Amino acid sequence: MGATGFMSGTSKRGEVYVRPAVLLTLAVLLAFAPCGLTQGKKKGEPPNRSVQGLVTSPTDQSVPGAVVQLKNTKTLEIRSFITKDDGSYQFQGLNPDIDYELKADYQGASSSTKTLSSFDTRKQAIINLKLNKKR
Question: CA 85, CA 24: separation in Å to the nearest integer?
Answer without folding.
Answer: 63
